[in-house]
Fold these 4 entries.
Entry 1:
Amino acid sequence: MLTDCIFCKIIAKDVPNYTIYEDDHVLAFLDIHPHAKGHTVVIPKRHAETVFDMTDEEMKQISIGMKRTMERLKKVLNPDGFNTGWNDGQAAGQVVPHVHIHVFPRYSTDGGGSMHSIVKNPGDMPVGDVAKLFAN
Ligand code: 5GP
Ligand code: ZN
């Protein structure tokens, strides 16, 4: 636990939240500034800043927690679909430095886009040249 981390404070119950799913490893609660009806963040109970600070076991646990959260949202709100993902690192838009998976319930009339609307800047290398960087 980090004493100055808002999500650690939520886990410690020092800051209130609207929990929609919880198990031994994961807490899922409604985002305070929702981008969709039922927008939820799923967090590991152990503080980790990014995915690179998490063990493989913790990755399994948060994946299962994400699925349970989606099942709960599906049952209660019955959305038409979901987007899930996380902002990993400041360049990707991460503000709270405690890993969290965003779960956006999606509705056929909500006017939103897909993952492809996050960024559209393919860089200055053809795909084939990028592939060569992975050759060894
Ligand atoms: P990030 O940009 O780091 O991926 O998103 C952090 C998310 O956490 C934001 O969507 C923000 O609204 C949410 N958030 C920040 N502080 C709180 C809080 O105290 N309570 C809740 N429920 N959500 C929070
Ligand atoms: Zn934390």
Entry 2:
Amino acid sequence: MIIVMKAGAGKKDRDEVVKRIKELGYKPHIIHGTTRDVIGAIGDERGKLVLQSLENMHGVENVLPILQPYKLASSEVKHEPSQVKVGSNVVIGGNKVVVMAGPCSVESEEQIIESAKLVKEAGATMLRGGAFKPRTSPYSFQGLEEEGLKMLAKARDLTGLPFVTEVINPETVDLVADYADMLQIGARNSQNFALLKKVGQCGKPILLKRGMAMTIQEFLMSAEYIMSEGNQGVVLCERGIRTFETATRNTLDLSAIPVLKLKTHLPVVIDPSHGTGNYHYVAPMCYAAVAAGADGLIVEVHPDPERASSDGPQSLKPKKFAAMMEKLRLFAEADGRSL
Ligand code: PEP
Ligand code: MN
């Protein structure tokens, strides 16, 4: 249920409502709005009638059911789009389109530092790179693990770019959160509920990828797992879904952008690299994503894709990335935004 406070209600009224919600056995989540606060009461759906009685409390305007199964992620609870801060100076969901770029995997200190410098020069504001890799085959490169995280941290220190990197199990969440500015939940783990709960407690923003066979509703339920643990810093990432089509690695579902924009207040990022699996298709999907309202992009860029340990065929060479960024700027500006 959502408890909508009156426009003039003060902290005292709000505290009383929060106390009562807890007494009734629900978890309160306060969402501050521009004119009024709303409080989500999350818990057993069967207690709706009991919560309805909060309408009699001082400062309460009304109590409404949340119709969607996802609550904290729903635009019913929060109408204004959310902004998620990463590091000290990146905001996802604002007027700037955030471009995260870098190699699929961290391979060496030189490789990640070179990548960070060149993506920064082309205008990216975040670095990406995998240190723990969730590979389909156990015989493929699995990542440099903590050594890779140290290299990413060094690249950040040298360039000032905050970085996003994947975490693949609950046991390593604290370790990854010690180094990273943003934690990525990969497509293969997007319904690993133990992992989602754990990153919900880590205090860092989360880039949640859509699973390759996940409906939008299931995607938002995964976001809800993270948010219900107290972490509101969730950014949704569409990265392609499995269809009958084999010309591309996955089918990038660009219609997910307007659908998500209607159903949730969370920012939306597009990954055209895994979405298509082929560097030829990456730039057009970047332009289309921005034109359709995406808040950001995550793009694989490698200084030498032919020698990449993973995902070389879909990685852009530095020059191609820089050219893509130049044109992308025009699409962002046409939409009243900037890079
Ligand atoms: C990645 O970002 O390198 C990755 C493995 O992505 P996904 O989980 O979308 O396949
Ligand atoms: Mn990859």
Entry 3:
Amino acid sequence: MCGVFGIVGVPKAAEITYYALVALQHRGQEAAGIAAADGERIRAHRGLGLVTDVLAKETLQQLAGDLAMGHVRYSTAGSNTVQNAQPIVVGTHRGQVALAHNGNLVNAPRLRIALEKAGSLFQSSSDTEVVLHLLARAGEMPFADAVVQAVRQVRGGFALVLLREDRLVALRDPHGLRPLALGQLGDAWCVASESCAFEAIGARFVRDLAPGELVEITRDGLTSRRWAEPQPRLCVFEHIYFARPDSDIDGWNVHAVRKRMGRLLAKYHPAPGDIVIGVPDSSISAASGYAEQSGIPYEMGLIKNKYIARTFIQPSQEMREAGVRMKLNAVRSVVSGRRVILVDDSIVRGTTIRRIVEMLREAGATEVHVRISSPPYRHPCHYGIDTAEKQLLAAHRSVVQMCTDIGADSLAFLSVAEMMEAFGFDETSAYPFCNACFSGDYPTEVEAFDKFDLERPAREGVTA
Ligand code: AMP
Ligand code: SF4
């Protein structure tokens, strides 16, 4: 989780970046930042909070230049402190470099220990800083070559944007685990985690970066190269939950995919109901597909308070529970006396759905049948979607047990094959998707020690 954006060759590039980041705000609400360059200097500002809180108008005016990049952060690796906010800006023997990262580097702890032993001093506990140290160590060579040399050493899911005084480099990991799209605003090239950022600034979506592709953008234009052999394992969870429905990712529109998932859910997992309700906002597309396929009317049975950020973002379980209550309300006149088919995109801890089932019953629903438009989420993601293993409900409970846990009359999920059908694949296809959180089939090696090692003050017993 996290969102990145970068643009080269427009006046007031920082201001444009600001609007793009607002459109990417759903990808992280904990911190935000922008770095801008005018050909000679990089200036940056970052802080904890929403884009609109962190970046005031006066601040944007100080970020002068026609090159800029920005980041919105959800802390996947490293704690939520301002040192871990991005872009990270450092001075190196090559000049200034700003870096923003979406994803998670699975071998960052090992690399960090090796770098520290070799004399590197780290300022943050974020895995992103590892890339900067690797970059600083690359020999005398053009900037983009040094970036390639550095990233060849890291493993995991990553979309990276790097800014120099006069150029911007952006790249996608060999599996394409994290999305990155290319756009054009007039003649100016831009990159963004999701195409919805281009819509927000009036830019044209050109294409997705390919897995293993790097682009270098200067005022003179764009060059592209393949820095690693592509081995596509795109993150299916971007389509299920994370991305905005108006984004197109790797050739699929997110809303259209969700709707097909809902249709397949109705086809393979019918339920006896009078109305279909989706959990706003992320499940509305799937619920509308379910309603269309089943012929059961879609109703607005849940209303969302638009001014509450995503519940998951709250750090403690207690705060999350309170968050669900503040965020959603059941509409009594719609659900009372009705059998409800409740469609949601996923169950992670089970907090949200349990509370919603309870709410619907309190509002008079006679039955609540829960249908989930993805498979049971059983395995932690190591590539940037933050979910700790012990908190995953499906990791320890069968579907029947989960049904009891959440208080539903029935519960069903899509299988991995059914989910892939929504993208047009059948069981004979080699899926170009990662679905490790459902299947446990990880596209990279997962190191024995994980991101939490980065935060341990003493790392005795862990050797590089
Ligand atoms: P939970 O209450 O923990 O079961 O959260 C599940 C709900 O949070 C789902 O309905 C999704 O809409 C949303 N969600 C799923 N995965 C994530 C994630 N990795 N981060 C934040 N929210 C998520
Ligand atoms: Fe996406 Fe799941 Fe793979 Fe993580 S494990 S990259 S959430 S599909």
Entry 4:
Amino acid sequence: MKKKEDIAVLMASTECYPMAKVGGMADVVGSLPKYLAHLGVSPSVIMPRYARPWFDKNPGKIIHDSIIQYPHAHHPFRIWQHEDSDLGYELYSVELPGLFDRESVYLAEDGHGYRDETIRNISFQRAILQWWHSDPDSFDLIHCHDHMTGLIPFLMKYSYEYPALRQKPSYFTIHNALHRGRCSWNNLSLLPHFDTWKGGLLDWDEAIDPLASALRVSDGINTVSPGYLEELPREAQGLEWVFAHERHKMSGIINGVDYDVWNPKTDTLLPHHLKKSIHSFKRKNKAELTASFAEPDLPLFVFIGRFAHQKGVDILIQSIDTWLNHHRDANFFILGSGDKSLEHLAGMVYGKYPQSVRVVFDYNEPLSHVLYAGADFLLMPSRVEPCGLNQMFSMRYGTVPIVNHTGGLKDTVPDITVDGNGLSFDGVQTDQVLNALQRAMELFSDQKSYKALVEKIYKLDFSWEASAKRYVDAYKQLL
Ligand code: GLC
């Protein structure tokens, strides 16, 4: 129930779990608001209405019906409110016929991004602003997530279409600065009229660059870990200068985990729940996964995630290949999908070592939970990892993470040699990964130390409590 003194925050995002998830951004947008709701914030989320089962089951009601005026056409849109959901925050969806009534969030059938990405993102953002402008007092500030909503801060301040929003603050979270949503200036006519003197704030390197614009125009910004914040002024594909220059309004706030969902005692996706002992919890769940391996009791290493260069999947698979070529003392389970050439590589390793490797090409939430619970080690050789949630899910279920020392992985998984939470290596190369595997095997053979580590990490606190408070402080500073 909203109280008068609550800060009314509108979160704008193209992903939100459980309605539509591609990566960790969905987990964050789907859980942070629940925790904000206990801290004097009245949170709402607005997202596109995809052709996805959740929306069939929870249609909601239409509260706004309008058009976006483009120079030679106009595009109808409708805002739906999903009142009776038990999500823990208000949910609104934007229906944009022809643009978002698709099941896949970003990728076309050929595995590449949709070719109409630019008009999709612009229409989504214009629809949000038009609707908000029809009742400007309904929200005190907007909180945007990644480049897909990166033009909103600029349009609020400098477009002539939304004068009542000009004084409203905007806050921006960077989940991943590798994607910027750049498009050519030929798309200019898709934007509503704005103060052309300010047009430079949309531009970076002779293109419209939504991320670069959001960095310069938003009133407050955070990255999803302090480690990542530190890296960006040194390495940001040409945006280093902007990161350095805007540093004064940026902070690093580590993501939390939704402990209502990620609870080993109650997780409905697990075949076996945690009762008394974390070790028997792991043993039983592991047995669900390894029955078909030649030697089910060997240490089980898993990878869960998108098959993308960023995630280091190429190096991971080469390392597994080399390892199994020399030793047959470990099992590997890989779950994920994405880049077809990486899928091909993974398929080849399975073909070579069917007794020790399992590969499932899928985005599969239920299986991922069993893997977090049943694995002995989680591999995360990400080249870049703004925060990373998988290492936190895995620790919650007593699985030891093995990570590259970068971004949020650096913050959450210090190495055991410094009394940390897992194994950390420096640089995504096969030698580094093989060395980490060697260390993991040694640790596992010393069951006393291994079990002590498992007991330590499953009790660590990665909940939202502390981080949600930092978001509230950031909002307060803007108001
Ligand atoms: C992106 C990042 C990941 C982060 C997530 C949620 O997916 O790549 O590191 O955890 O967003 O913020």
